[in-house]
Specification:
globular, seven-stranded mixed β-sheet, 360 residues, 2 domains, Aspartate Aminotransferase, domain 1, binds 4'-deoxy-4'-aminopyridoxal-5'-phosphate, three-stranded antiparallel β-sheet
């Protein structure tokens, strides 16, 4: 068998081995049905049982109240960038956006096609290296949109922004969903591409208040109306069955580990260890400012591009993969999603330490 390396990829990211093994087991036959998970009809009894279990586990893990819909959509988080404003924004209405990174910028740009966008906060002045402390909300915004974790710049909100009561909160949680407990009641709508913390690429989880899915525009294509998917339990058309199934395996794995509280503890430990090393290092430094540092994506540099490139080469050869930072930040990025093992963080720190000693 090929040896698995430590996969620091920002997404699709590492999945638990137990999940991969169970998925493999069910490829030829889902349980004793004689039909593989990839081959079952989404309308058949076997898949419907899978679906019901995934929804129930999702509700249980995150404490999602009954008046919220759980939807499994396609098109990635990028499709949510325009689906949200298409459903809720009108040409003369305003939505507030907290622009804390490249994904937030993209979300705001899509919203501008449908209505007014007010930038209530931005961290662009220091290359998105921090989370703004204050927001300047507009008086009558329909909703406030923020990106809870900025995958590229390595920053993360410690808690939800305090948005005005008159609007509802929308969150792109693609890169930190289910990495810690979440108070769903504070949100109108949460969306997340699955490929970091929840499963394979190809499904986007949307958690939305039922009154909102019901009230979205009906003047847009059927597939883009949240109500379509809410009224048809995500089966108006063929849903990404395999992705939903694997997401369920990940949910079961999270539950076995002790749920979202356990995830939070273990993620804080993993990232904390790495930041501690970086803060003490003479060669490497974290790019995100303390107070807004991400526990999912740790971004760091040496300050010398050649040295960065050499470190990445050395690390890759040692079985530490996917550490190259996004081109807009440069340097390195260690993505430490839920399933990333603590031993991988230890191996990275050792590799950084050795590199530093060799090049001192
Ligand atoms: N938002 C965030 C925070 C992301 O990290 C990403 C992908 N890396 C996206 C949105 C885009 O997601 P997708 O590729 O699923 O469209």
């Amino acid at each position: 068998m090929v040896k698995r390396v430590f996969n620091f990829s920002p997404g699709p990211g590492v999945l638990p081995l137990e999940v991969l093994d169970e998925a493999r087991e069910n490829l030829r036959s889902l349980g004793n049905t004689g039909i593989g998970i990839l081959e079952h009809s989404h309308r058949g009894k076997a898949f419907l049982a899978v679906y019901e279990e995934v929804v129930a586990l999702c509700r249980e893990l995150a404490g999602i109240p009954d008046d919220y819909d759980i939807l499994f959509l396609q098109g990635g988080a990028s499709t949510q960038f325009f689906t949200v404003p298409m459903n809720f924004l009108t040409p003369n209405a305003t939505a507030d956006y907290l622009v804390t990174g490249a994904w937030a910028q993209k979300a705001a740009a899509e919203a501008k096609r449908f209505g007014r966008v007010h930038v209530a906060a931005s961290s662009e002045d220091r290359n998105f290296s921090y989370i703004p402390a204050e927001c300047d909300f507009s008086p009558n915004s329909v909703y406030v949109h923020f990106t809870s974790n900025n995958t590229i710049f390595g920053t993360q909100f410690g808690s939800e922004p305090k948005s005005p009561d008159s609007s509802f909160l929308v969150c792109d949680a693609s890169s930190d969903i289910f990495s810690k407990p979440i108070d769903v009641r504070r949100y109108g709508l949460i969306y997340a591409g699955a490929q970091k913390n929840l499963g394979p690429a190809g499904v986007t989880l949307v958690i939305a208040r039922k009154d909102l899915t019901a009230r979205g525009s009906s003047d847009i294509p059927t597939m883009l109306q949240y109500r379509t998917h809410a009224e048809n339990e995500s089966m108006y058309n063929t849903p990404p069955t395999f992705c939903i199934y694997v997401m369920g395996l990940v949910f079961k794995w999270i539950k076995r580990q002790g749920g979202l509280t356990a995830m939070a503890g273990w993620n804080a430990q993993k990232a904390g260890k790495l930041y501690e090393f970086l803060d003490a290092s003479r060669m490497f430094r974290a790019t995100a400012e303390p107070g807004g540092r991400s526990q999912m994506n740790v971004t760091f540099v040496t300050g010398d591009e050649k040295l960065d490139a050499e470190f990445i080469k050395t690390a890759t050869a040692a079985g530490l993969d996917g550490l190259k930072g996004h081109r807009s930040v440069g340097g390195m990025r260690a993505s430490l999603y839920n399933a990333f093992p603590p031993e991988g963080v230890d191996a990275l720190i050792q590799s950084l330490r050795d590199f530093e000693a060799k090049h001192a």
